[in-house]
Amino acid sequence: MIKNKKIILSGGGTGGSVTPLFQIYRDLKDKFDFIFVGTYFGLEVKMVKKEGIIYRPILSGKWRRYFSFKNFIDLFKIFLAFWQSLFLLIKERPRLIISAGGFVAVPLSLAAWILGIPVIVHQQDVVPGLANKIMSRVAKIITVTFPTSLKVYSKKAKLIGNLGPDFSKLNLPGNEVLDKYKIKDSSLPLLLVLGGGTGSFFLNKLIKDSLKDLLKFSRIIHVVGSSLRDIENNFNHDNYLKIEFVYHQDLLALMSLSDLVISRCGLATLTELSFLSKPSILVPMPDSHQEFNALEFLNKGAAIVLSEKNIIPGDFVKKVKEVLVDDNLKNKLAQNISQVIKNGNQEMIAIIEKIIK
Predict the structure, then answer these.
(1) Domain boundary assignment for the chain
(2) CA angle, corner 221, sides to 216 and 222, nearest 5?
(3) pLDDT of 179-223, one tens digit each?
(4) How far apart are CA 75 and CA 180, in angstroms?
(5) What is the pLDDT of residues 272-313, one digit of tens each?
């Protein structure tokens, strides 16, 4: 069916800037045509193609806020990407551009502004990155996840929450996933460890060093991410499963089944933990935007937050056990985390449909 109203979604570099855009596609694919613009070789290439969205790659450059010869090379890439974007937009004639971050979307947004095509920027993290700051200058509206972010932007900013699955309408195949990954039924609580889209070397090492003690009182599903981030570990145990990659739908099912999640602080994962009301121990990437994200959860009593710089395996094991054995603490964390991020799907749909009349 030809819908004649086209939306371009754009983001890349990490899965975090891509995942919320998929929710827009799922909600509106019956009303609009969609194209996704990303990098040539980023994580988003496989993610988008699996989702079934038409994919158009362009060059991507990144501006580093410190001296680097790579900045000169990337400036040239950004220049070329702008012209790629301009020709792409003239050819496709979209009615709207939407990005949730990533430098690949910057030249596309600037080209859209020159052509008079409206741009929506969705700000997930508490503190915006440079790409979103640049795009906000040409955006028609900036939607934000946290009230704190409103202070950063102009009056064009609107608080909607974040985009993600509506779990009240989603049937997660729990038993099927347990069978698929050969996870044995047990009276022990289930611990899920996540290090983000590419994995976390630090978390992987922390789990390796704590594993024998953790297995005394829990079952563990450990998503290690990229093999480059994995720690060589030949340890075998009936209650320990190490997985390099999990499809998103399976991951949501594993989250819902878990008694406790240990995770980095990317907003896509934090949003799903909030929507699922899942007790969590968060370990933000040090000296990054993740620390500001974690602070929002800590200040609301919505998660246990640990500093990577101070964690030692013995104290970590004690904290995990403290949460797992204390039902009152688990219930409190579950209740509080469910209040941190609201589901912004319907508000985003209303904004899009108002722009594309």
Answers:
(1) 6-162+343-355, 174-337
(2) 105
(3) 888 887 788 999 999 988 778 889 999 999 999 999 999 999 999
(4) 46
(5) 999 999 999 999 999 999 999 999 999 999 999 999 999 999
Write out the H or E segment, with its range, that includes residue 342: none
Contact present, 165 and 274 (Cβ < 8 Å)? no
Residues 6+ apart with CB under 8 A from 137: none
Identical fold between 6-162+343-355 and 174-337: yes
How large is the average pLDDT for residues 87-106? Answer: 96
Instruction: Residue 226: count other Cβ atoms within 10 Å of its Cβ.
Output: 16
| One-letter amino acid for residue 357 of the chain | K
This prediction has a pTM of: 0.88
Residue 188 DSSP class:
S
Residue 103: closest CA among 126, 85, 88: 85
Homologous superfamily (CATH) of 174-337 is Glycogen Phosphorylase B; (3.40.50.2000)
**Encoding tokens for residue 330?**
């688990």
Considering the domain 6-162+343-355 in this protein, what is its CATH number? 3.40.50.2000
